[in-house]
Each structure stands twice: as C-alpha cells, then as structure tokens.
C-alpha cells in the first residue's frame, strides 16, 4: 500500500542506511485486488528502505510468485529511497503510474500459501541474502479471499522480519500507490553508487561453534476444534469456543479465528489473532463488521515450528438486512397500579416481537420471589406470533395459589434461545379474597371469562414499561 511510514520506522530506516538496507516485500495481494474484487488481479509490493536509491530493480528477483512457483523477473528501473514499486498481473489494477509498476502476466499466487522471497538475481532458493516471506509455504500469515471482503497481506513495519507471522496483518481494501512520490523513480541516471565502506576486517580463524543442535524430531500438526457456534445463531455478538493443543513436547500453540463464506479452502477474514491454545477457550465475534449473509467460523492453530491445522464450527452466523436480531420480550402487567380486578383476578399482559422468520411460544408462571425462574406454571404454549395472545386473566383460586405476595414471570422459547421476564411489580393474593373465590358459583365460568379476556386483548401492545429479565442462549 502507498503509505507514509511512521516517524519511528523512518528513524530506524535512516539509522541503518549506512549498512545498506536491502529492499523488502511489504504487501502481497495473494487473493486478488480488494478494490476490483477480482481473484485474478494479484500483485506484489516492494519497498526500498535504504537512504540511497536502488539503481536497477532487475538485479533482484521474486522467488515463488510465478506460475508453479517460478521466479518473477523485475524491470530495469530505479527505485528512490523510501519508495514503493508494484508488480501486477493486470495493468493498472490497482491504479498505478508507469514509473512505479510493471505488468507480469505470470504472477500466480497460491491461495493456500507458498514461500515468497525477494532475492538477488541468480538466486535459486530462499537464503540469508533474501527478504523471506511465509518461509514454510503454509497458509498465508494474513489476508482473505472472501469475495466482497478481500484483504491483502500487509507488513506492519518494513524493518520487521518478514518470515514471522507477527510481522503481517490484514491489509485495508484500498488501492496502493495512491499518493504522489518523491525522488526520481524510473531514472537510472538518478542513482549513484553506494559506498559499501571499508573491506571487512580479518576476523582470524573460525571459532568452533560446538556440536550442531539436536534434531527436534518429527513435527506433528496441532489439534484444533471449534464447538461454538453449534447451530445457526444471530445477534450483535457471537460467542466462539475452541480447543487447541499439540502432542509435541514443549511445542506451544497459537490460534487465529476467521469468518468465511463456506467451509472449504480455509480462506476468510481474521477477527482474532494470536489466541492461546487450551481446552474450552472462548472469543467474541462482533457481527456488526460482517456483511449480510450466512457465515461460517473456523480456527487455524499453529505450533512453534510452523505446522498448522484448521477446524470449522458446526454452526453458522446469520446476519440479516437490519431489523431485529434478538427478540423483544417483557411483561407490562401487573405493574403495581390497580392490578387486582374486583373479583380477585389479575390481568397478565406482555409484549413480544420476534426477528423475521423466527418462531416461539410464551409460558406464564407464578413464583414466591423474583429470581431463579423456579415457579409454578399457569399457562403454556401461547403463540408469540403477531396474531398470538398478549394477555391472560389469572385467577389464583383456580391455580390454588396460597395467600401472600406472588411474583409473575413469563418465558419466551424461540427458535434461537430463551428469554425470561418478570413482571414490573408483585401482586398480593388475599386470604379473604380467596375465601370469596371458593364461594363463587361455577368456577368454570370464571375460567371461560378469563380466556375471553385473553382473546379480546390479542392485539394488545404496550410500549415502554420496565423490563426485568435475563437472556439464555442455547448452545
């Protein structure tokens, strides 16, 4: 990306200029260009951190960027100090000027990952003379190939070690080389030879380094699994639960989490990085960053020697076109004001709204306190659909509720979880009222009257009011 380096990075570059800093790869569009959203518009960005211009880029070669891993030749152009150059396989994608880009139709970067190095021309394999990127050839350290959400792999600091995962992050979906350049790129006459300094001092005979390090033995892949989400879930945030480990002694594991449009290819957008291994670890996905659609979650575990493994969650994350993603549910009556009817009955009224295409039912309970949701049932199976009831007439006589303070609550069971809501205020069931109730003729008529009131209040929706409840999501 065309960017202004932070002052600290520039300071490091300038201080090291006397040692003739070598050019480095700073960004790789291995999944295509984010702006064009084309998986074939691939490009590689090269940066010159030296205080002097690079006189001839053709003295360098990119290993591993071509078809079947072939090398990519660079043009005979100069590159000014602290300047960038782009090798792209589609002309002007992203937009560039001729002095800062060349077209190479042989660029073919593997989505699954490959070793990539910027080396002196004539080099046949990545070695200490090269700027090495993704040395194991495994999955790319960063970036995404998800259509509509493509990301490049961008170096965090040009002075960092490109062979380390920690040196890279997802690149922003913007065109590189977007700003004006200083210096005189493309003009070979602008270069002057760089003084390499005095010849090295003879260090004397070689020092015995001792026996070679012990062979660490074979390296097994880490184990990784994602248990949550276990079903299709919705919400502003989603809990992700994973487990990761490695059987090799002393081989630490780190985990990255991604969201993707499918369960193949292990390519997606990373939303958590460098998480620790272990059993039953958890992280949170903010779905506000996701496009509308159904997305799958996967984890990539890496051990200290570069081996990796991928696992997908059994469930999915659904992001809708706005509207509700969680239900609205509350009891609005009894609210502490004129709750008891003249005959000792109580009207229970509630408000419920479900997300589009969700289904659910409401159950009513009476409890001796306002916590725990461990009361006695009053009525169940009341539809939460828009045409369902929104009120019920409760007769303490018929439910044989003893005299005293009673708390009413309701439970909404819907297609993605459960919500519990207590009424804003308790009610008092009187002993004398209950005696009067028992003396009333034909209790069945009173039940019929209660059901009639429930039917009459079907469309009742009371906005506002105090809600007291807790949400429990199913696994």
Structural write-up:
The protein has 475 residues and is mainly β. It folds into three domains: 7-178, Immunoglobulin-like (Sandwich); 223-319, Immunoglobulin-like (Sandwich), CATH 2.60.40.10; 328-473, Immunoglobulin-like (Sandwich), CATH 2.60.40. 7% of the residues lie in helices and 34% in strands. The chain is built from three helices and 26 strands. The chain has helices spanning 7-15, 431-439, 443-456; strands at residues 24-28, 43-48, 60-63, 72-73, 83-88, 101-103, 116-120, 131-133, 153-155, 168-170, 223-228, 237-245, 253-260, 269-276, 278-286, 293-303, 308-319, 328-333, 346-353, 360-367, 376-383, 391-394, 404-414, 417-422, 427-429, 468-473. The strands form six sheets. A six-stranded mixed beta sheet has the order 6-5-2-1-9-10, with no helix packed on it. The longest helix has 14 residues, at 443-456. It starts with 6 loop residues before the first helix and ends with a strand.
Name of the CATH first level of the largest domain: Mainly Beta
Gross morphology: elongated
Contiguous helical run count? 3
Rg of Cα set: 34 Å
The CATH topology of the largest domain, please? Immunoglobulin-like
Please list the strands of the largest sheet in the order they lie side by side. Answer: 6-5-2-1-9-10
Count the E strands: 26
The main sheet comes to: 6 strands, mixed
- Average pLDDT over all residues: 77
Helicity range: under 10%
CATH architecture of the largest domain: Sandwich
| H/E topology pattern | HEEEEEEEEEEEEEEEEEEEEEEEEEHHE
Compute the number of structural domains: 3
User: Which residues form runs of ≥5 with pLDDT under 50?
Assistant: 1-19, 177-190, 192-198, 434-450, 452-475
Which percent range describes the beta-strand content? 25-35%
* Strand-pairing-aware structural class: mainly beta
**Distance between the amino and carboxyl termini:** 42 Å
């Amino acid at each position: 990306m065309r960017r202004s380096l932070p002052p600290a990075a520039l300071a490091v570059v300038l201080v090291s200029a006397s040692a003739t800093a070598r050019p480095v790869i700073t960004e790789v569009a291995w999944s295509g260009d984010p702006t064009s959203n084309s998986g074939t518009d691939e490009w590689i960005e090269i940066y010159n951190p030296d205080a002097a211009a690079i006189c001839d880029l053709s003295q360098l070669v990119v290993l591993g960027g071509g078809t079947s891993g072939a090398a990519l030749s660079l043009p005979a152009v100069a590159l000014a100090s602290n300047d960038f150059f782009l090798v792209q396989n589609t002309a002007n994608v992203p937009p560039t000027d001729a002095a800062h880009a060349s077209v190479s139709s042989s660029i073919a970067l593997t989505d699954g990952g490959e070793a990539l190095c910027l080396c002196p021309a004539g080099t046949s394999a990545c070695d200490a003379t090269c700027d090495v990127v993704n040395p194991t050839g495994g999955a790319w350290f960063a970036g995404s190939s998800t259509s509509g959400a493509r990301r490049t792999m961008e170096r965090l600091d040009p002075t960092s070690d490109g062979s380390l995962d920690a040196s890279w992050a997802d690149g922003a979906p913007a065109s590189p080389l977007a700003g004006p350049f200083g210096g005189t790129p493309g003009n070979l006459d602008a270069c002057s030879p760089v003084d390499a300094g005095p010849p090295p001092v003879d260090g004397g005979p070689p020092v015995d380094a001792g026996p070679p390090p012990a062979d660490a033995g074979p390296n097994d892949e880490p184990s990784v699994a994602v248990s949550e989400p276990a079903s299709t879930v919705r919400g502003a945030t989603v809990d992700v639960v994973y487990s990761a480990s490695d059987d090799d002694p002393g081989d630490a594991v780190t985990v990255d989490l991604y969201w993707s449009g499918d369960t193949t290819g292990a390519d997606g957008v990373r939303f958590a990085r460098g998480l620790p291994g272990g059993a039953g670890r958890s992280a949170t996905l903010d779905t506000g960053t996701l496009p509308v659609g159904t997305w799958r979650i996967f984890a990539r575990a890496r051990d200290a020697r570069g081996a990796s493994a991928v696992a997908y969650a059994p469930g999915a994350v659904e992001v809708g076109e706005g509207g509700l993603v969680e239900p609205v549910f509350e009891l609005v009556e009894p609210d502490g004001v004129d709750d008891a009817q003249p005959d000792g009955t109580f009207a229970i009224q509630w408000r419920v709204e479900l997300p589009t295409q969700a289904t659910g039912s409401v159950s009513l309970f009476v409890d001796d306190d306002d916590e725990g949701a461990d009361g006695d049932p009053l009525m169940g199976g009341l539809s939460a659909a828009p045409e369902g009831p929104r009120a019920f007439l409760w007769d303490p006589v018929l439910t044989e509720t003893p005299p005293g303070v009673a708390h009413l609550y309701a439970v909404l069971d819907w297609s993605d979880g459960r919500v519990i809501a207590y009424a804003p205020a308790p009610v008092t069931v009187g002993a004398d009222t209950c005696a009067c109730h028992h003396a009333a003729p034909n209790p069945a008529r009173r039940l019929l009257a209660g059901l009639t009131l429930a039917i009459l209040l079907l469309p009742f929706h009371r906005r506002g009011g105090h809600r007291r409840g807790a949400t429990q999501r199913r696994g």
